[in-house]
Amino acid sequence: MLTTPRPVPAAAIPSGKASLTSWIAVLAGMIGAFMAILNIQITNASLLNIEGGIGTGVDNGAWISTSYLIGEIVVIPLTDYLSRVFSFRRFIMTNTLLFALFSMACAFTHDLGSMIVMRGLQGFAGGILIPMAFTMVLTKLPKAQQPIGLALFAISVTFAPAIGPTIGGYLTENYGWQTIFFVNLPPSIAMVIALAYSLEKTPMQLSLLRQGDWAGIVTMAIGLSALQTVLEEGNKDDWFESPFIFNLGIVAAVFLAAFVAIELTVQKPLVNLRLLKRRNFGIGVLVNVLVGFALFGTVFILPQYLGQVQHYNAEQIGNVLAWTGLPQLLLIPLVPLLMKRYDVRYIGFVGISIFAASCFMNITLSLDSAGDQFFLPNVVRAIGQALVLTPLSSITTAGIAPSEAGEASGLSNMLRNLGGAVGTATLATVLTKREQFHSNIIGQSVTLYRDEVRQRIDDLTQYFMAHGVADPAAAHHRALAAIGATVRRQALVMGFSDTFAVIGTLLAIAAVVLLFARKAGAGSGTGGGH
């Protein structure tokens, strides 16, 4: 997740080697990017504990992650504009402090409503830190040293989602779920001190508030929030059979249509939609959306499987997911070297294909598929992801002028984050529908007309009677319930297999689409990746 505020003119970019002060600013920015992205996924392995702590059910618990994501989606296109209004230094330092404060506030919530509000505000502040970190790479480092800064940024934004559930799971199991919201405090304090020392003071430009595309801002915020609510609640409420979902869907459609119309007509749009007409940018954005679907989807589905089917605790889930991040620490620094020697389209194609292959490795899940069986697919997935992000950014931003970089990156990454949000909601629906489908198919075979089924019921009845159930009728009832539970569990496993097949198929499509882009050099553009 990245958006790049408008770069400074080339004359303002330093030449030679960056000073120690500049590197302090860049590294402080990386801390912010790492924390912001870490907090998208840090709750995933601990959702059951958090849901119990605030007294909500599994159906509503996904809002703990979704509300954070909505905050980020809304603020990404605003970062360029607001950083110019309030000054870069003041804006990033203020939001660093707000990010830590809203994070700690989450630990003191006692109901779902207050948790959703605090996570949304935390996401709004955190979403600002990611693009501003990338901006410092472009403005504080000379051209020759920018690849080093970009490698640091890539490590931050790809390692954080994978390690987030690991950190969250460990803290939850050993110290309680509240502690996962306090981990941001020490880094935030260190970051503010470093930024106060290393960033120069610049005046605010409050006069720019009068020039803002406020109609676009309002319609975008309402439309995206309504759309995400429809996606999140639709599966639980039977989609448009629910009056609430139906009405909210109309709100989303009306406001997003108004947003598109406004952006195509105003002189200074918040989001320049006309950039999508450009071949590389349009293709890059489409692939970004599909990759975002897969990135968020895999980190959502795997913890759900381990928790629901294998009954892993938060720490065990985190340990399984850690192997998605660790190999990337070694591989990402090598990608710029590959980009100097090979066509970036082919590197991206190979990376997305490997990512897809890792998903297809999980389409034959069984009741025996647990942590050890996910080790190899997770390592393969890590290799693929490491090869995707930087080449895709180079392709997307090829031909984008420096004056358009903020607009292009904002649009690209807003849609990628939205793709991730849509992916999570879509996969939850696919899982539900496919579980029902497989349950019906299996149920047609598990009938009392089959001798082996009747024999199994008799065996289970005798088992329960031998273990404390004196009433034969009660033992028989428990035997039927046990068989029903086995059928549902097997159907659930097959449903999870189908979700991985959906992700793999979309990634395969993305890999092919990427080849239709024009050739781009390794150093093309100014955009970033996640």
Note down, in words, how this protein is organized:
The protein has 530 residues and is mainly alpha-helical. It has four domains: 1-208, MFS general substrate transporter like domains (Growth Hormone, Chain: A, Up-down Bundle), CATH 1.20.1250; 213-269; 278-433 and 496-530, Growth Hormone, Chain: A, CATH 1.20.1250; 437-490, no CATH class. It is built from 19 helices and no strands. The chain is globular, with a radius of gyration of 24 Å. The model is unreliable at 1-11 and 523-530 (pLDDT under 50). This is EmrB/QacA family drug resistance transporter. It holds the Pfam family MFS_1. InterPro entries: EmrB-like, MFS, MFS_dom, MFS_trans_sf.
Span from first to last CA? 5 Å
Q: CATH topology of the largest domain, which one?
A: Growth Hormone, Chain: A
The name of the CATH superfamily of the largest domain reads MFS general substrate transporter like domains
Helix content: over 70%
Strand content: under 5%
Largest sheet: none
Assigned CATH class of the largest domain:
Mainly Alpha
Overall 3D form: globular
Uncertain runs with pLDDT below 50, 5 residues or more? 1-11, 523-530
Rounded radius of gyration (Å): 24 Å
Give the count of helical stretches.
19
Overall residue-averaged pLDDT value:
83
The CATH architecture of the largest domain can be named as: Up-down Bundle
Helix/strand structural class? mainly alpha
